[in-house]
Amino acid sequence: MSTTNFNESAVREAAYFLWLNDGQPQGQDQDHWLQVMEQMTAKPAKKKAAAKPRKAAAKTATAAKPKATARKPAARKTVKA
Length: 81
Known about the structure:
By secondary structure, this protein is mainly alpha-helical.
């Protein structure tokens, strides 16, 4: 089990604000302190990585497009008078 070193003043301040939000009840200081400690030790939820585009989908999208090719200008016919 790992031990975490907490900043006591930060815990005290968070517990104070929790006490204020609860309506300043008497005799629940230890409950607020423990609640703050539990919140600080809780592991944050892991975020899912953004889905990467599939290579197969990218290939089919480019294969569907016709390739642009440069055309040679058509030769003009000259009319003899």
